[in-house]
Amino acid sequence: MKQSFSFYESVYEVVKKIPYGRVSTYGAIANYLGLKSSARMVGWAMNKSHYNLDKIPAHRVVNRNGVLTGKHNFGGQNIMQQLLENEGVIVENDMIINFEEHFWNPIEELD
DNA sequence: TGATTGACCAACT
DNA sequence: CAGTTGGCCAATC
Questions:
Q1: What does the alpha-carbon distance between residue A10 and residue A90 come to, in Å, rounded to a whole number?
Q2: CATH topology of domain A7-109
Q3: What nucleotide is nearest A74 when CA is compared to C1'?
Q4: Strand C nearby residues, CB < 7 A
Q5: Global pTM?
Q6: What is the pLDDT of residues A67-79, one digit of tens each?
Q7: Strand, coil or helix: what is A105?
C-alpha cells in the first residue's frame, strides 16, 4: 500500500492514533509533522480518507476552534457530531464543549 | 502541463 | 474590526 511516506500518509498515521474520546486539530497534526502552515493539507487528506473511514476517525479531527468544520463531509449533517457525542464528547452548535479537555496534542502525547 | 482548489491558520491591511 | 493574503502539499480540471 504505502511504499513511500508522504505528508498526507503521515496524517493518516497520526489521526489513527487519536485515542477514544479525544479530539485533535488540523493545525496540531500539521505542526507535529513539522509543517505549521499545512493545516489545509490535513483537511484535504481527510477528504480523501473517506475511502478508509473504517481506519481513520476523521470525526475526531476539528479545526483549532473546536468547530466541526468538516461535518458536511460525512455524507450528511450531524453525523460527525453524533459520532463525537457517542464517545462522550459534548458538541453544541457544531462546536465541542470543553474542547481543551478533549484536545489531544500529538506533540505532547507522542513527542 | 499550468492553473485551481482544498475539512486551516496566522499575520497583515 | 473585518476582509485579504501568504503558506504549505497533493490532487483534480
A1: 28
A2: Arc Repressor Mutant, subunit A (1.10.10)
A3: B7
A4: A 6-8, 35, 37-41, 44, 48
A5: 0.91
A6: 999 998 888 789 9
A7: coil
